[in-house]
Design brief:
By secondary structure, the chain is α/β, with parallel strands linked by helices. The strands form 2 sheets. Strands 1, 2, 3, 4, 5, 6, 7, 8, 9, 13, 16 and 17 form a 12-stranded mixed β-sheet that branches. Helix 1 links the parallel strand 1 and strand 2. The chain is globular, with a radius of gyration of 20 Å. The chain starts with a strand and ends with a strand. The chain has 10 helices and 17 strands.
């Protein structure tokens, strides 16, 4: 069982530490409050739910090393410092820390319930969960509800947002009834622009008196399904021998419409033996999105891919990509 380390204030010198040093300093998942220089409901900020996605922590350190003259209080949750110490998404023996909320992993229920309880003891201004992208994607927000307050907060970060119903065990969903709540996909790991985007969002969120009152120019997508490589199937992204050879360059079309019949990969195996597609209710819908002919796998319908990644570890731990459709 993983328990929450709840502190009344951040440890001295914590904001001078890199993400990989936090495990030794904190000992585990940690929640603490930072007093602001003006009154107001606090901003909840979560980072390092995935230990190798460090832009959020870097931005938070920059903010606190050079704080604005007037800023609201913060409640900070550092999710998985142990994974950060090894520079991995999550430890092999642990679940994904962004898949343990809202009835997720039983072994971490005490942690998740404590975080939500402590964070929502008083009204929150908003909640922002900071992540880096997997694969080449634009920066965008993720919302788990379609009320205006969530979409307005999303527009504070980007003109692109994705509405997701699955996975349904993310932190954003656990907080959506308490305040405006988004996850943000900042851009690739180790890209300085990702750090800059996170810092800019935090500075605006802690200094703004109110959220934006409109999202009129927000481009909104709906996530339809997740694409998984079947267990035990070896795959490649080039001409290397493998049961499944995926079409090169697909990562470059994240957030771009892909027409029906576009090639997706090659395999001599039956479609369902190499690829599994799950919809928002966790139903297998592989043949709704793909078909196979003469060993070539193609899209059955037009879709917009997102988060397509060529990182084999991420593919195995999470998924190959998401498939979306525009909502407006």
């Amino acid at each position: 069982m993983t328990l929450l380390n709840h502190l009344d204030a951040p440890p001295a010198g914590i904001f001078s530490l890199p993400a990989h040093a936090l495990a030794e300093a904190l000992g585990g998942p940690t929640l603490f409050r930072l007093d602001g220089t003006r009154a107001g409901a606090p901003l909840f900020v979560s980072t390092l739910l995935h230990g190798n996605e460090t832009s959020g922590w870097t931005a938070l350190c920059r903010l606190m090393q050079d704080p604005p003259e007037s800023m609201r209080p913060l409640i900070v949750f550092i999710g998985n410092p142990a994974a950060a110490s090894r520079r991995v998404r999550h430890l092999p023996e642990e679940p994904d820390f962004n898949r343990i909320w809202c009835g997720g992993s039983a072994g971490h229920r005490a942690l998740t319930e404590a975080v939500v309880h402590e964070a929502t003891k008083q009204p929150l201004f908003a909640a922002v969960d900071l992540h880096n992208n997997t694969g080449r994607n634009p920066h965008y927000s993720v919302v788990t509800a379609l009320e205006d307050r969530h979409l307005n907060l999303a527009y504070l970060f980007s003109d692109k947002a994705v509405y997701v119903e699955e996975p349904d065990t993310v932190l954003t969903r656990a907080l959506q009834h308490h305040c405006a709540s988004i996850a943000v996909e900042l851009g690739p790991i180790n890209d300085p622009r990702s750090d800059d985007l996170a810092e800019d969002l935090l500075r605006r969120a802690v200094t703004e008196a109110d959220l934006p009152t409109t999202h009129e120019n927000l481009t909104l997508y709906r996530s339809l399904a997740r694409v998984h490589i079947a267990d035990g199937v070896d795959f490649s992204f080039d001409d290397s021998p493998a049961k499944l050879r995926l079409t090169g360059g697909m990562e470059a079309v994240n957030f771009h419409a892909v027409p029906e019949h576009t090639p997706f990969g090659l395999s001599g195996e039956p479609l369902g033996h190499v690829v599994t597609v799950l919809d928002s209710s966790h139903n297998v819908v592989t043949e709704d999105f793909f078909y196979s002919t003469s060993g070539e796998i193609r899209f059955r319908r037009a879709v917009v891919p997102a988060m397509y990644t060529t990182d084999p570890e991420v593919v195995r731990q999470d998924c190959l990509c998401y498939l979306m459709t525009p909502m407006r």
